């Protein structure tokens, strides 16, 4: 039997474009990097990024740059379209973020893309939608300020294999935060904001006209920023300039943080990283690493900006010579900083302040309020707690998805912050969101909302399927709760979503179809008439702030990934944790409609928020919370004072 050669066929253009798009846009963070660079090229001074589910459901970037001309909207998403060059030779001297003409085109082939833009000469903004690089309909006039809003929805909706290969939404969100944070540091004159859709708070915010060090302090914390030393060098032979900040000999971390920008593009260089870490090996303890931020400006003709599909790698001439120059400069500044290391001796700070985490204040054992017993009786009649204590024998949950989620929590634990939270002394509440705690001789400003949300998530995962119940004595209607939620701005409802009554019916039908699972795993019971009977009892003596109940019911129907077991459990626990967490704002006078449907004594809860935070939340954080690595990079823990440093200030006075 003879073998015949295969027939070579030309692939369909749609397939070709999707393959190319997959090379350029590998994950939401790649798409965002391209969009941020476009915004910076457009001379933006404010850039706001909004995401949903790690950028897979929604990735939006809003800038105040020069905008896009209406005449260019027809071709802006076609491949190899640009305003940066006209001829091939122009590539040699391009001084912007590089060119391949594929960013918007690639995104439009793997997502639903829309652009709203206005230039300073336009009387109104123009909105256009794209699919597979083509304009769907002629641009429509709309309201809008100068600048551009690019909205990417359902990323990889038509590339299922790529979507399955991505990490969890929380991990993808972390990658997005990393990209935004790094560009915010390098572009300190530009204000950056990152938030999740529907959240009132931001995950990251830097003001315009800030400084590099201030933004490092905001994003990586004051403990990193205070140990930085500036570096700079220049060489005519190799045609490059380098400037930045590197950590001194007093700083060390378990992993190297290297922010490298070459000609203002965020890239990586393994060779340069190894060269610099070789210098630090003489100054830092074994298995510890530095923090590095470097900006290299290299003659454009010495750089190939289009080596890698995602522009992640940049090749340049004289790489070894440049690395050696930077090595020498860093070695010189480290040698100087090494002589200034501080060692504290003969100062017994721990004897001067209360540092024993087991010390308690007397008010824990006093009555929570000075109210008469009638209120307590009212509370008892309005809410009953059942199975408040865990059973002696918990059932064993062997679901692979739950075990994996439990392991992820352990893997992401930050040991240093675990020590702080496990052995802290509570000082007091600044607001519902912020509190002061003391660990050893250090004073921290902590984000109670973020910490309590993470703790409740971990309790939901670690105690999966073993919750007690909170019985609602006057069970509210699911339909009424959803309609109430849709009246709130936080729901994000618009007329395009359809009638509220239809949405309410959908939520009732969906949750009723999940009744066995919700009751078995989460102690959340709904009867056949569509009334909410119980909530999970997660923490002893703790009842969530019930004014958030309507929005919670809506979100577990619309934000939970019901089609995948692991994603379902993770997203359900995340939404439930948000409901149980301490809210950013606690209302003294809750809405009458909420009081009508949430018969648990809302007013009584809200008046006792300080007591709940000090005597329920923070003792539970001390006992249960495994702080995430991300808390070390944001402002969840902010050191505001250190006793030895204060003594040094007083000594100089």
UniProtKB/TrEMBL annotation:
GO biological process, one term: mismatch repair
Basic and acidic residues: compositionally biased ranges: 374-393
Sequence ranges assigned to domain DNA mismatch repair protein S5 in this UniProt record: 216-335
CDD domains membership: HATPase_MutL-MLH-PMS-like (cd16926), MutL_Trans_MLH1 (cd03483)
Keyword Phosphoprotein: yes
First-listed, main subcellular location of the protein, grouped into a coarse class: nucleus
One annotated GO molecular function: ATP-dependent DNA damage sensor activity
Subcellular location per the Swiss-Prot or TrEMBL entry: Chromosome; Nucleus
InterPro entries tied to this protein: DNA_mismatch_repair_CS, DNA_mismatch_S5_2-like, HATPase_C_sf, Mlh1_C, MutL/Mlh/PMS, MutL/Mlh/Pms-like, Ribosomal_Su5_D2-typ_SF, Ribsml_uS5_D2-typ_fold_subgr
The keyword Hydrolase belongs to this UniProt entry's keyword annotation: no
SMART domains reported for this sequence: DNA_mis_repair (SM01340)
Region annotation Disordered: where it falls in the sequence: 367-393
Listed transmembrane segments: none
Keywords on record: Acetylation, ATP-binding, Cell cycle, Chromosome, DNA damage, DNA repair, Nucleotide-binding, Nucleus, Phosphoprotein
PROSITE patterns: DNA_MISMATCH_REPAIR_1
Domain of life: Eukaryota
GO CC terms, sorted: chromosome; MutLalpha complex; nuclear lumen
Family: Belongs to the DNA mismatch repair MutL/HexB family.
Protein name listed in UniProt: DNA mismatch repair protein MLH1
């Amino acid at each position: 039997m003879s073998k015949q050669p295969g027939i070579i066929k030309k692939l369909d253009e749609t397939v070709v474009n999707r393959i190319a798009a997959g090379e350029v846009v590998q994950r939401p963070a790649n798409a965002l990097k391209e969009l941020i660079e476009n915004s910076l090229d457009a001379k933006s001074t404010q850039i706001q990024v909004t995401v949903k589910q790690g950028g897979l459901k929604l990735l939006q970037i809003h800038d105040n740059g020069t905008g896009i001309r209406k005449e260019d909207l027809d071709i802006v998403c076609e491949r190899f379209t640009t305003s940066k060059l006209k001829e091939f030779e122009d590539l040699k001297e391009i001084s912007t973020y590089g060119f391949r003409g594929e960013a918007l085109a690639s995104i439009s082939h793997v997502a639903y893309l829309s652009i709203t833009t206005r230039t300073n000469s336009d009387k109104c903004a123009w909105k256009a939608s794209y699919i597979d690089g083509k304009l769907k309909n002629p641009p429509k006039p709309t309201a809008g300020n100068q600048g551009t809003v690019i909205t990417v929805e359902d990323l990889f909706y038509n590339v299922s294999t790529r979507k399955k290969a991505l990490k969890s939404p929380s991990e993808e969100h972390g990658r997005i935060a990393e990209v935004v944070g790094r560009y915010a540091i390098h572009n300190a004159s530009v204000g950056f904001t990152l938030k999740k859709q529907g959240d009132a708070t931001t995950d990251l915010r830097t003001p315009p006209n800030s400084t590099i060090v201030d933004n490092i302090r905001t994003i990586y914390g004051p403990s990193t920023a205070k140990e930085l030393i500036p570096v700079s060098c220049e060489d005519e032979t190799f045609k490059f300039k380098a400037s930045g900040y590197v950590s001194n000999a007093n700083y060390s971390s378990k992993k190297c943080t290297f922010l490298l920008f070459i000609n203002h593009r965020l890239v990586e260089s393994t060779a340069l990283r190894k060269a610099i870490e070789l210098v630090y090996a003489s100054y830092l303890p074994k298995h510890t690493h530095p923090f590095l931020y470097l900006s290299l400006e290299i003659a454009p003709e010495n750089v190939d900006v289009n080596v890698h599909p995602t522009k992640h790698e940049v090749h340049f001439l004289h790489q070894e010579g440049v690395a050696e120059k930077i090595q020498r400069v860093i070695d010189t500044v480290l040698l100087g900083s090494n002589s200034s290391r501080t060692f504290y001796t003969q100062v017994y700070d721990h004897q001067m302040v209360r540092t024993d985490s087991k010390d308690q204040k007397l008010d824990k054992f006093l009555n929570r309020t000075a109210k008469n017993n009638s209120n307590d009786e009212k509370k008892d009649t309005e809410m009953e707690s059942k199975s408040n204590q865990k059973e002696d024998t918990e059932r064993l949950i062997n679901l692979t998805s739950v075990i994996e989620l439990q392991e992820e929590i352990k893997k992401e634990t930050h040991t240093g912050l675990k020590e702080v939270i496990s052995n802290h002394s509570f000082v007091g509440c600044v607001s519902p969101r912020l509190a002061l705690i003391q660990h050893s001789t250090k004073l921290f400003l902590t984000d109670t909302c973020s910490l309590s949300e993470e703790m409740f998530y971990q309790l939901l995962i670690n105690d999966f399927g073993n919750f007690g119940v909170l019985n609602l004595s006057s069970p509210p209607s699911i339909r009424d709760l959803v309609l109430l939620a849709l009246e709130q701005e936080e729901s994000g409802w618009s007329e395009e979503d359809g009638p509220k009554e239809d949405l309410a019916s959908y939520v009732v039908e969906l949750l009723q179809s999940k009744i066995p699972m919700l009751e078995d795993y989460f102690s959340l019971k709904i009867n056949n008439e569509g009334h909410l009977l119980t909530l999970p009892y997660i923490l002893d003596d703790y009842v969530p702030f019930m004014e958030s109940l309507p929005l919670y019911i809506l979100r577990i129907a619309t934000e939970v990934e019901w089609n995948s077991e692991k994603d379902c459990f993770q997203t359900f626990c995340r939404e439930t944790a948000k409901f149980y967490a301490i809210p950013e704002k606690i209302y003294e006078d809750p809405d009458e409609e909420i009081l009508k449907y949430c018969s648990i004594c809302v007013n009584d809860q809200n008046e006792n928020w300080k007591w709940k935070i000090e005597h329920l939340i923070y003792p539970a954080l001390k006992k249960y919370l495994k702080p995430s690595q991300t808390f070390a990079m944001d402002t969840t823990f902010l050191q505001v004072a250190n006793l030895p440093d204060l003594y040094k200030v007083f000594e100089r006075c």
